[in-house]
């Protein structure tokens, strides 16, 4: 039995070996050291093995003789710490479980490793910052004793770390869903429902709010209904009117796309929560910002594809999901760190197939990721728009994928560009969340991981930036045999900067 525990600890446990073990043993059986397979995988820092064991039924909150759960051990493991913690949290591990001394995983993270990203992850998952241990200390008490501003910030409640994070987009989505429910509710008579009525079964049977219904009045035709919605947006939700002007048929087009989606046998994203997420994504203008530097030609595994090829496969799938409910002609914008557009607008509003074709590039050049973020994305899509006296058409989601350490002259160029963007938005009356960033890595270069980790600890950055844990291509390859799982995972990845939850 000891051999399989060693495999788990070393990250070499396969599903076949585990299935053979489970023919005669329980998944939570302990070895001579009183450790389960899950505990050994956590101590070794192997999130893929952790996920395998959980999928096979391992108890995620099983305690050892000291009252510690796997999450207690994950926050102090040396290898792949944040990825291991996230694997447990995604499996609903209790972030407030206390050991025999009353210490929670958050308390251990503060006291023993001072790992700020892990602390933030635990707080976002619901870990208490005020619960007391056996010494009558809370997580906040322990953090205050560290005399480290980043640690103190990390244990602030999630809503204080990102004020207003969900409010803006939630209002938009709620209005979209209200319109769908309202048209099908029977509250008004004579409204020609059209394709919108087909969407009702996907959203559920929630009745629209009566007070909102009164404000929309009693339209007799579809045109009346749209006009009244325009008035409602202008008067009741001015933050929406900044993006969706009167006579904007965006909502109707999203509904039409949702109907098509429901009837598509190849679509795996049909659950009400997934439709809600796709609606949120449809409200954003996605801009892909891809690393095309020379290192993207690297092959990380024997006989495997290059990072550039992995990027192409991954991004093509992401684009398919990000635009699934977006009206025709409103595709994804694409920009590279080094490669320029052959002409103005050539890389705007691209379809999935067009993105796939453009990603067949020859890697070359450096990684001036911060400098070119400002020059190629923030300047044309934010700064120049404001300089012309115009407004943003839609909120923006910048999807950044890189494989290595930045080579900007200014090491803080990336952070500075994001801070400048946030200030420009605020100056024009927008919330900073009107432009969000999803920053991910690909390949096995640890300098890319270090770059992502270094983005944490600044409230202005944390408010609008979400960093995925671990290389995206690794998870993508692990799930590639199950289309439904791939789509669900990628939707979660894309939603992470919008919802503020670590679901990637």
From TrEMBL:
Pfam families: Ank, Ank_2. Keywords: ANK repeat. InterPro entries: Ankyrin_rpt, Ankyrin_rpt-contain_sf, vWFA_dom_sf. SUPFAM superfamilies: Ankyrin repeat, vWA-like. ANK repeats lie at residues 33-65, 66-100, 101-134. PANTHER family: ANKYRIN REPEAT PROTEIN (AFU_ORTHOLOGUE AFUA_7G06200) (PTHR34706:SF3), SLR1338 PROTEIN (PTHR34706). This is Ankyrin repeat domain-containing protein 1.
């Amino acid at each position: 039995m000891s051999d399989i525990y060693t495999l788990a600890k070393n990250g070499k446990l396969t599903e076949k070996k585990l299935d053979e073990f489970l023919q005669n043993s329980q998944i939570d059986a302990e070895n001579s050291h009183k450790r389960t397979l899950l505990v050994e995988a956590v101590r070794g820092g192997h999130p893929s093995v952790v996920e395998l064991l959980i999928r096979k039924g391992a108890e995620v909150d099983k305690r050892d003789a000291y009252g510690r759960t796997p999450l207690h051990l994950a926050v102090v493991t040396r290898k792949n710490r944040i990825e291991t913690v996230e694997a447990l949290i995604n499996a609903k591990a209790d972030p407030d479980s206390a050991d025999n001394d009353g210490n929670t995983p958050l308390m251990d993270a503060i006291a023993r490793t001072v790992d700020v990203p892990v602390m933030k992850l635990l707080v976002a998952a619901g870990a208490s910052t005020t619960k007391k241990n056996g010494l009558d200390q809370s997580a906040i008490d322990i953090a205050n004793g560290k005399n480290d501003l980043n640690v103190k910030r990390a244990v602030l409640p999630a809503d204080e770390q990102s004020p207003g994070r969900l409010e803006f987009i939630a209002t938009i989505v709620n209005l979209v869903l209200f319109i769908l429910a309202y048209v099908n509710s029977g509250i008004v008579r004579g409204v020609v429902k059209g394709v919108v009525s087909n969407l009702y079964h996907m959203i559920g049977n929630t009745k629209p709010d009566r007070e909102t219904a009164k404000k929309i009045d009693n339209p007799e035709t579809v045109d009346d209904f749209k006009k009244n919605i325009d008035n409602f947006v202008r008067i009741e939700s001015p933050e929406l009117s900044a993006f969706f002007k009167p006579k904007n048929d965006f909502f109707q087009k999203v509904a039409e796309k949702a109907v098509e989606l429901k009837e598509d046998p190849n679509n795996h994203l049909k659950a009400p929560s997934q439709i809600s997420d796709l609606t949120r994504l449809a409200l954003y203008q996605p801009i892909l910002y891809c690393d095309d530097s020379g290192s993207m030609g690297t092959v990380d595994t024997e006989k495997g594809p290059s990072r550039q090829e992995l990027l192409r496969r991954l991004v093509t799938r992401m684009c398919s999901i990000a635009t699934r409910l977006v009206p025709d002609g409103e595709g994804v914008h694409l920009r590279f760190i080094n490669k320029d557009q052959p002409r103005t607008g050539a890389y705007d509003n691209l379809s999935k197939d067009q993105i796939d074709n453009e990603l067949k590039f020859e890697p070359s050049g450096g990684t001036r990721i911060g400098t070119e973020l400002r020059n190629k994305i923030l300047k044309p899509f934010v700064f120049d728009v404001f300089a012309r006296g115009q407004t943003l058409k839609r909120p923006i989601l910048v999807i950044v994928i890189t494989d290595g350490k930045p080579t900007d002259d200014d090491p803080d160029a990336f952070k500075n560009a994001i801070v400048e963007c946030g200030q420009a938005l605020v100056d024009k009356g927008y919330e900073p969340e009107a432009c969000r960033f999803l920053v991910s890595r690909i390949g096995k270069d640890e300098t890319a991981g270090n770059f992502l980790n270094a983005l944490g600890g600044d409230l202005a950055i944390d408010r609008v930036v979400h960093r995925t844990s671990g290389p995206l291509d690794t998870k993508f390859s692990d799930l590639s045999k199950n289309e439904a799982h791939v789509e669900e995972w990628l939707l979660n990845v894309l939603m992470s900067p919008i919802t503020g939850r670590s679901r990637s």
